[in-house]
């Protein structure tokens, strides 16, 4: 018991001799020391563009028949879209095209047979005015399958927003550098930018395509369902290497 008391006393004395943890003001940095800081900034901006993805699928006894049937409907649908949308407000682009055989189920002792052919082509409709999405879907309903609708920030708006985001990112990096300088007990001017890099922007709004198409089909043409393009949270990442001078 006496030995335990002696050991306990020695332990307490050792703890008492440990100095207090260093404070931020006690930190020091070697000349030309490098510090890497990063940030991600976000702005909420209105979506000013819509992209509608459509498709036409038809079958035929031969590959030629399937393609002919598909192209007939495709051309009719493209004509209907151009008639329904204001000139200069929509860009129509043909997408992937495939024509594939459909085979019978293999039976014992027999090889598979080609039953018919399927031909399919996608169409991408870019609307420079997202409020036209309803009219575009109404015009497409009779001819196309509806694959998806995406409201997004246009390229031009993205470039404008990127400038603002870069300014936000640099301001945040500067504020963080000032905190570092204060921790080292040096003026903010003593921390210099050595390298600076920016990442890509992210953020888009995707409505649920099947649900939207069902709503449009159920609504009379004279009483079209309104769709809001909404907003996107657009983010930009950045990083910088600072040197202590």
From TrEMBL:
<dbReference type="Pfam" id="PF04402">
    <property type="entry name" value="SIMPL"/>
</dbReference>
<dbReference type="InterPro" id="IPR007497">
    <property type="entry name" value="SIMPL/DUF541"/>
</dbReference>
<protein>
    <recommendedName>
        <fullName>SIMPL domain-containing protein</fullName>
    </recommendedName>
</protein>
<keyword id="KW-0732">Signal</keyword>
<dbReference type="GO" id="GO:0006974">
    <property type="term" value="P:DNA damage response"/>
</dbReference>
<feature type="signal peptide">
    <location>
        <begin position="1"/>
        <end position="24"/>
    </location>
</feature>
<dbReference type="InterPro" id="IPR052022">
    <property type="entry name" value="26kDa_periplasmic_antigen"/>
</dbReference>
């Amino acid at each position: 018991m006496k030995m335990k008391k002696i050991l306990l006393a020695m332990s307490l004395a050792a703890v008492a001799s440990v100095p207090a943890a260093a404070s931020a003001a006690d930190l020091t940095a070697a000349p030309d020391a490098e510090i890497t800081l990063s940030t991600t900034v976000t702005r909420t901006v209105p979506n000013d563009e819509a992209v509608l993805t459509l498709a036409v699928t038809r079958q035929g006894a031969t590959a030629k028949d399937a393609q002919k049937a598909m192209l007939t409907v495709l051309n009719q649908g493209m004509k209907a879209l151009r008639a329904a949308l204001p000139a200069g407000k929509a860009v129509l682009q043909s997408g992937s095209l495939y024509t594939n055989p459909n085979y019978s189920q293999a039976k014992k002792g027999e090889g598979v047979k080609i039953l018919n052919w399927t031909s399919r082509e996608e169409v991408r409709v870019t609307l420079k005015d997202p409020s036209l999405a309803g009219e575009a879907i109404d015009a497409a309903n009779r001819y196309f399958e509806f694959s998806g609708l995406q409201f997004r920030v246009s390229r031009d708006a993205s470039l404008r927003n990127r400038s603002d985001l870069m300014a936000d990112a640099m301001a945040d990096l500067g504020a963080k550098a000032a905190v570092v300088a204060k921790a080292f007990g040096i003026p903010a001017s003593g921390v210099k930018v050595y390298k600076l890099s920016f990442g890509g922007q992210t953020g888009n709004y995707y409505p649920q395509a099947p649900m939207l198409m069902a709503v449009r089909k159920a609504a009379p043409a004279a009483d079209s369902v309104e769709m809001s393009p909404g907003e996107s949270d657009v983010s930009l990442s950045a990083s910088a290497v600072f040197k202590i001078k």
